[in-house]
Amino acid sequence: MAILGTIIKGAIELRGSLVSETPAVEAQEKVLRKLLEKAKDTAFGKYYGFRQILDSESITKSFSDAIPYHDYNKMTADWWSRVHDGLDDITWPGKPSYFAMSSGTTGKTSKRIPVSDEMIDAIRTTGIQQVSALSNFDLPADFFEKEIMMLGSSTDLTERGGFLEGEISGISASNIPFWFQGYYKPGEEIAKIDDWDERVQTIAERAKDWDIGALSGIPSWIELMLKKVIEYHNLNNIHEIWPNLQVYTSGGVAFKPYEKSFNLLLDHPITVIDTYLASEGFVAFQQRPETHAMKLVTDNGIYFEFIPFKPEYINEDGSITRDAPCLDLSEVETNTDYVLVISTVSGAWRYLIGDTIAFTDVDRAEIIITGRTKFFLNVVGSQLSVNKMETALRELEEQFDIEIPEFTLAAVKYDNEFYHHWYLGTESAVNTEELANALDEALKSANKNYKVARSKALKGVKVTTIAPDVFYEWNAKNKKKGGQVKMARVMNEEKFSEWQRFVSDFN
């Protein structure tokens, strides 16, 4: 009998029964007040009058009225550049202990996002909340004795100007609690290997020594790791070497696009739990098995606001217009796309994280990620969000019985006519003209604006199929393998031309 696992599971269930949750709207008001109190004497707090905001009748309204939206470029130019230079008390008291490096999905130059000690504590506390939520998933006691494979970026952080730098997954893994280290794989030594291919090769070689019960990481990189382990040991599926694998916690992107290809690597289904850990903080996690939506972390270091994701508020480069309205948690509705705005214990203020979300349950503050603001395709009025794109691709997977874990597209001119040119990552041989027609019909059904565009300025759809590995090698060329790196779903014409040359050379 799994005695230790029974004890751990019982402790988690007991904690869950003892801890009562503060209503989300009330929790958010408390978080905002704490943020303003803590930062009122920083340069940012003095400039924007945090003391006056705290004395106002409605701090949520006064806060949104007083402070403009900040994307990374504005935040850095106006404020974080001084934090990078080592100055104290700029947007948060003192200095950050770390900088999270993030090239995201849209840029070549890495962003340097401050990570304070308070943020490390907030991420750790939310991690404990997520572990507590496992009691809702009816997992057997012996699961809690198994090891957890966390595949993120390297934990060998770089020292620069007195600060440590790395991707947020590497920073988080380097700060795991001492009591968790016995469960954590691949372990400190392997996790410090900077070269992703070398790290995954080492994992494959050591895989037989571990009893993995759970996986954690971005789906595309987890898939590649599993394929390497299967290939190295000449297996049919991953359960032949890790028979007790029962849980996968996905992070940073929606799991649905990868579901079919991921399941091909398994002998039987496992529990998939979505999480949302961004470079700026631990935003949300799936709390219950009845849904794949994630609960916003409303009580732990992040204050959320929401801009309706409408074409009139989105500039051509994906930025937000200054006059775009903003809602707090008490004002949002279900099934509406919003641009996510956050203020955090690392000194990000009304910060545009770049993601769009939709609420599936307002009372529970549960959301799904629907896309990126810069991946909103509105050339010739088509108004396509990533969520609409992925919904159409899931229809194609069912219709043609194929897997399409990766894609990218652009609106381009051929013979002076606009087309949407899609590159679909699939191992299956399917007639591309049939795919293009089916994709076009699916998008027309899903989006009336697209249907209108197709009757006017948008001439049609072109599809090119390539191996999914090409997408991963593109990321390796432009950024780095593994970690938080994600594929750009929409490209401008210049980037798309570069992509097409890369695909041609790769093949």
TrEMBL record:
A Pfam family recorded for this sequence: GH3_M
Domain GH3 C-terminal: residue ranges: 390-494
Domain GH3 middle: 297-362
A cellular component term, taken from the record's GO annotations: cytoplasm
MF annotations from Gene Ontology: acid-amino acid ligase activity
Keyword Transcription part of the UniProt annotation: no
Membrane-spanning segments: none
Keyword set, alphabetical order: Coiled coil
Coiled-coil residue windows: 429-456
Leader peptide range in chain numbering: none
InterPro entries recorded: GH3, GH3_C, GH3_M
Keyword Disulfide bond: no
Protein's name in the database: GH3 auxin-responsive promoter
Lineage summary: Bacteria, Pseudomonadati, Bacteroidota, Flavobacteriia, Flavobacteriales
